[in-house]
Every structure is written in C-alpha cells, then in structure tokens.
Backbone:
C-alpha cells in the first residue's frame, strides 16, 4: 500500500478552513468543479470534475473545526476505497493542516501524479483563504 501525506499551515482559524474542506461551497473554490453533500458522518458527497469524472464518497469522520475525512466510493479504480482526510490543529490564528490520502493499492504513476496534484490543490486552498485568490477550475493545475 501507498499513502500520501502533506503538511501545511494556513493563517486562518480552523473554523474557516473546515468550511473550505467540508462543504460544497468551500470545495468548489479550490478542488472540485461542482460538489454536493452534507458534512456529517455517514452522508454521501458527490464530486464533479468533468463528464467523465463524477465521483462519490461517504463522510467517515466529521468533527467540526478539527477533522474531516471521506472514503471514495465511486472514482478512478486507484482512488476507489481510499481515504482523504484533514486534521486541523488551531493555535493563535494559524492552523496546522495534516492532510492524508491513504489506502492506495500501489505506488504507481497515478499515485505519483495524484500526490503532485494534491500539493497543487492545497496551495490553491491556502492562497484562497489567506489572500482571497480565485482560480478558475480549468486553470487550477497550471498556477
């Protein structure tokens, strides 16, 4: 098995970050083209990226301002069954984010590409929250 881990700090309270990582309105600002779902444990989320990429996930952990995780139910074969999560540790207006995408079956090319893409998306999340920058969906991996 292979796992992806990223660590970053965002100059914002955990509550603000939690909204960006756990709500459709937030996710659509930095990751998805369009999403839907309720950020409660056991609820289903839908992630739309393009006509070929319409994925679903089940929220497996949702602790407001602290932790959010989902398990991919319908996705690319390599992503199906993996866990994507965020742990938030708040302090003095700065929040440490421990990001993970675990349960990959193999350290293959798709794993390595996804690892890179997560780093890019997390940078967009940070810039959005800290500076209000907005990046069009089609340009997100080119900034």
Residues:
């Amino acid at each position: 098995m292979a796992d992806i881990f990223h660590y970053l700090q965002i100059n914002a309270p955990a509550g603000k970050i939690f909204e960006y990582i756990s709500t459709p309105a937030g996710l659509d600002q930095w990751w998805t083209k369009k999403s839907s779902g309720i950020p409660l444990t056991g609820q289903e989320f839908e992630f739309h990226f393009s006509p070929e990429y319409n994925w679903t996930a089940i929220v497996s952990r949702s602790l407001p301002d602290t932790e959010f995780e989902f398990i991919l139910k319908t996705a690319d074969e390599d992503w199906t069954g993996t866990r994507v999560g965020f742990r938030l540790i708040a302090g003095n207006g700065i929040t440490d984010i421990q990001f993970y995408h675990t349960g990959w079956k193999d350290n293959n090319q798709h794993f390595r590409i996804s690892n890179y893409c997560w780093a890019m998306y997390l940078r967009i999340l940070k810039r959005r929250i800290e500076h209000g920058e907005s990046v069009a969906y089609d340009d997100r991996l080119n900034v």
Q: What stands out?
A: The helical segments are 14-22, 24-30, 109-131. The first strand starts at residue 2 and ends at 10. The mean pLDDT is 96.
